[in-house]
Write a structure and sequence with these properties.
The complex is a heterodimer of chains A (124) and B (288). Chain A is of the alpha/beta class and 124 residues long. Chain A has one domain (4-109, 117-123): Transcription Regulator spoIIAA (2-Layer Sandwich). Chain A contains 4 helices and 5 strands; from the N terminus they run βαβαβαβαβ. Chain A has helices at residues 15-32, 49-64, 76-84, 98-108; strands at residues 4-9, 36-40, 68-72, 93-95, 121-123. A 5-stranded parallel β-sheet of chain A has the order 4-3-2-1-5, sandwiched between helices. In chain A, helix 1 runs parallel beside helix 2 (49-64). The longest helix of chain A has 18 residues, at 15-32. Chain A is globular, with a radius of gyration of 14 Å. Chain B is an alpha/beta fold and 288 residues long. Chain B folds into 2 domains: 5-153, Globin-like (Orthogonal Bundle); 163-282, STAS domain (Transcription Regulator spoIIAA, 2-Layer Sandwich), CATH 3.30.750. In chain B, 64% of the residues lie in helices and 9% in strands. Chain B has 11 helices and 5 strands; from the N terminus they run ααααααββαβαβαβαα. Chain B has helices at 5-11, 13-26, 37-54, 69-85, 89-111, 115-158, 180-197, 214-230, 241-249, 263-273, 282-287, and strands at 163-166, 169-175, 201-208, 233-237, 258-259. Chain B has a 5-stranded mixed β-sheet, sandwiched between helices. In chain B, a hairpin with a 2-residue loop joins strand 1 (163-166) and strand 2. In chain B, helix 2 (13-26) runs antiparallel to helix 3 (37-54), helix 3 (37-54) runs antiparallel to helix 4 and helix 4 (69-85) packs across helix 6 (115-158). Chain B is elongated, with a radius of gyration of 32 Å. Chain B starts with a helix and ends with a helix. Classes of the chains: A alpha/beta (124), B alpha/beta (288). Chain B: It comes from Spirosoma terrae. Chain B: This is STAS domain-containing protein. Chain B: Residues 159-270 form the STAS domain. Chain B: It holds the Pfam family RsbRD_N. Chain B: Keywords: Phosphoprotein.
């Protein structure tokens, strides 16, 4: 989607799957030179501390590659769990839904800089 | 066993019931306002039926026997419902003890010529009925506690209304002390409302919170972080001077949270975040 990558997580992530996601995503950002990553976790109902850490890691890694990460559509239960685990995901941008997340990324991106890569990455 | 009181009770079931009802009707603990005569009769009949059906010559001196479970269940149900209906403990106690009196009267009628057996059987019945009485009280108190618990929950629910003050702006006035369980309720209802309405800004008004200590502040910060995770901004408003003092004295860092003194200024800030402008209309100006 324009200069952004959209990742929709459809299932509950297990450790190995999450690690794969991390690697794939960073590679993809590098390959496409994407400026923003949108992670849609609206279908995720269970998180653990590892998953929270992976999200934080992805944000830090993409930042190094000059891309912002926005996590969108977090469920209330998930948010409460992460807070109770002491993970406030500082450094990760959040938005209510994909649309707002996209707007947030757009506002962060330099308006005159346009990249023509179309990417859509779905994790099954 | 020379004489079976169990048999006596079973065969004189109807008589016992009548005597008991008479005692109840005569007693000052009768509450016609709380329970109709028919209900009382049905309730008493059930208890007498159950008691006479399970009682035998063997288990009468063994109160712990599982045979009485059924009676206990009936008793629990009765005293639970009485607790909910607002009977006083005295009235509920008298209800059970009047049954004891009825049984004694029955015994006296039938064993008037044999004082020794009368005494022995009375003791047995006494022990049994005392334990029934204790069960009744236990469940009665439990019933009352349930009522209190339910009210506490209701208060907690009532006191955390999430109000949509504007399109995309939610307000949550918190009244009363914030403890862990309330924070949980507050957080859940706020986050759910954010999802339901798709609001981007939440205002947490704490003007109704009497005191803020480090724990309360911790809870507030948690709530703010959780809303941030959901992708919404959170403003804390209604901070009174005393609260500002305590917060600083306790060394609580609220610097990365937007705080406003009043709900009005928080709303103003929310408007400016949403690039909304409130204007007095031209027409109104002319009137003024």
């Amino acid at each position: 989607m324009g200069p952004f990558l959209l990742v929709t997580i459809q299932i509950d992530l297990y450790d190995r799957l999450a690690l794969n996601l991390e690697t794939d995503l960073v590679n993809m950002v590098h390959k496409t030179g994407a400026r923003g990553v949108l992670i849609d976790i609206s279908a995720v109902s269970i998180v653990d501390s590892f998953m929270g850490r992976i999200l934080g890691n992805i944000a830090s890694m993409t930042r190094v590659l000059d891309a912002e990460t926005v996590v969108v559509g977090m469920q209330p239960a998930v948010a409460i769990t992460l807070i109770e685990l002491g993970l406030s995901l500082t450094g990760v941008h959040t938005a209510l839904d994909v649309e707002r997340g996209m707007a947030l990324l757009q506002s962060k991106l330099d308006p005159d800089e346009e990249l023509a890569n179309d990417n859509d990455n779905d994790v099954e | 066993m020379a004489y079976s009181i169990a048999q006596l009770l079973t065969s004189n079931k109807t008589r016992l019931f009548d005597m008991w009802i008479q005692k109840q009707l005569a007693s000052e603990s009768l509450r016609e306002d709380l329970m109709t005569d028919d209900e009382l009769r049905a309730q008493s009949q059930e208890l007498v039926d159950t008691l006479t059906s399970v009682i035998t010559a063997d288990n009468i001196s063994h109160v712990e026997s599982t045979d009485f479970d059924e009676v206990f269940e009936v008793l629990s149900a009765i005293s639970m419902s009485r607790a909910r209906q607002g009977f006083s403990p005295r009235e509920t106690g008298l209800y059970i003890f009047s049954l004891k009196e009825a049984i004694f009267d029955l015994l006296q009628e039938n064993l008037a010529d044999d004082p020794a057996t009368l005494l022995a059987e009375s003791m047995k019945i006494n022990r049994l009925m005392d334990s029934f009485g204790i069960i009744t009280f236990e469940t009665f108190i439990k019933g009352r506690e349930d009522v209190i618990l339910r009210q506490t929950e209701e208060i907690a629910d009532i006191s955390t209304p999430v109000i949509q003050v504007w399109d995309g702006i939610l307000a949550l006035p918190i009244i009363g002390t914030l403890d862990s369980s309330r924070t949980q309720v507050v957080m859940e209802s706020l986050l759910q409302k954010i999802v339901d309405t798709g609001s981007g800004i939440a205002i947490l008004d704490i003007s109704g919170v009497p005191a803020v200590d480090s724990l309360v502040a911790q809870h507030l910060i948690k709530t703010v972080s959780a809303t941030r995770l959901m992708g919404a901004d959170c403003i804390i408003s209604g901070i009174r001077p005393e609260i500002a003092q305590t917060v600083v004295h306790l060394g609580i860092d609220l610097s990365n949270i937007i705080t406003k003194a009043t709900l009005a200024s928080a709303l103003k800030h929310a408007f400016s975040m949403n690039r909304l402008v409130v204007k007095r209309s031209e027409a109104e100006k002319k009137v003024l």
